[in-house]
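I hope you will forgive my troubling you with a question about protein structure. I should value your view on which stretches of the chain appear to form regular backbone elements. Here, with my thanks, is the record as I have it:
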Amino acid sequence: MRLADQIAQCRTPFIVENTITKRQTRLTGAADFSSALAACPTRYSLSDDLVGLCTALAYSKGARTLACADLLHVPGEHVWIEWCEAPWIKELNRYGFRSAAQHAQAVGRRGALIESSPQGRRGLIKSFWTDGDKEMEVLASSMEAYFDFDTDVGEDPAAPDGRNGATISVFDRTAGNADILRRCFRFRYESTWADYYEQAQLFTCQADSIARHALGTIAIDIPVILAFLLLLATRPGLPRRALMLERLNQARMKSGKTPLLDHIEVSSPLLPEYRSAGSESVASHPRRGPRLHHVRGHLVRRGSQLFWRVPHLRGNARSGIVRSRTVTWTLDCPPEQRPGAGAACEVTVRPAQIREN
């Protein structure tokens, strides 16, 4: 079952109990978003190959997606995006996120609910995940992210709901002013969780440890979501297929089951994944020229075009031939938002650091 359906059908409140006083507190959880998911007009489900592409665009060395803030916008005031966790974890492992491998689940899914302005340039993101089909296995992050793509350098993005409080900034020191996460995004606890931790009167070291753990449940998703939004803006866009489930839902309702939500399946337009080098070819043939090795993807922006040099193998061709390594996307954007001809717009994304404001 897709994550959106699990949340829409979730009715169990998230309640925690103080082990000393036995006091129970209800915190915002997945069940509190069941109505929002059911009413969400746009729901995307990403194919595994597209998940791998978006993760590579976000985290590959030299893949400088995040400097394209002027091209980004959310395609609706309420948008849901979800994907399978396995291909996401697999791609993250290639770019240094080894600690995430232990959390990978073959049936796990992740998702994000985005509430944005009509122009799609500012809004709020909430993150969700599940490791199974049971209702208690559907979780919502205690943190949320708000953004404003029009934030100027040196300013802080304004919270869309006007709520003030402590925030966390995620940044890459090497990116400077081109780092969209530092400039346009802030992370904070959801209001009930913020009150809960404030009343807990934690030591500083405890609060920092909890904050870093909570931040890890949402911050790592944001670059992948941004890469997907960037691909949606390309012309002619991504291959998509709207799934209308009327007949299936009629059968489900007759058997007493809850109807499933309609959604759009989105897939990648690129080539199949490259072949990896086999140990036999390296061992059985004398070395001639460069050894076969993997070259990470590179993304360069020039004007309204993005050039993506897909991950490929370089060296001994006995292990296979890469027919094409460059893909060009053209984006439609207002002339005043386009940089000068031939100008490259790039930023490298690495495992991030955090800073409290």
